[in-house]
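Morning!

This is the sequence you dropped in the shared folder:
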Amino acid sequence: MKVRSVVVAHRAQMNPQLGGAVDALGIFDNMIQPMFPIPMQHMSIILTIEEIIKPTLFEVRLNGPEGDLITKGEFQPMVDPFGVGKKILDLDKFLIPTRGKYTIEVFEKLPDNKYKFMSEHTLFIADYPPQRPFTQDEINKILADDTVIRVIKTEFQPVGLEEKIKIQHSLDPNVPVEDGYITIPENNKLKVGEVELDLLGLRRHLDWMFGRPIPKAEDMKQPETSTEEPKAN
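The structure's back. Tokens below.
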């Protein structure tokens, strides 16, 4: 037996009309986010195992970037006449605590309650947006154009904290900071009570907005979420 494939999606289900087919929404390999931890309301893992010749129980273990066990579970897939079994593992309210590579290990459960390792696979890689390179000419061009984004004001509520944090991020560091807002510290570390937040990803995320056309008022309307979309001036 061997694992043919591991696919991660936001949601997946077996197709009711076509046997063996899977309907998946939002398949992904990489997750780019400005901040961690990130809560996911739902995540589906689609496992396909081939060369199954008898009813077999399997165990999967999901591991974090440091090899830490996040969760595990057993399953027995339905097997088609060709020895191929598929299983959709649904995870609700799954928390992605930090950036890094998340993996899944697959084991065959033996009759004596021991486990035989089969294979390990990358589920996805979670990381910050890539750093944007700036040239001085590009900075000067953006700052000279009042129709594009040069200052960004945003607020967000980190997971686990009750208060919202208001950030002002400017391409020109000499722009005055509006009352109630703070700038991203030079070392990207912000202490809120006993919690230290890493704002490097947020800085990179906001940097990519500089130079874009200023959105119209109707484009600024967004549904309420735990992390609000940036507003630009």
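Headline: Residues 222-230 have pLDDT under 50 and may be disordered.

More detail when I'm at my desk.
O.
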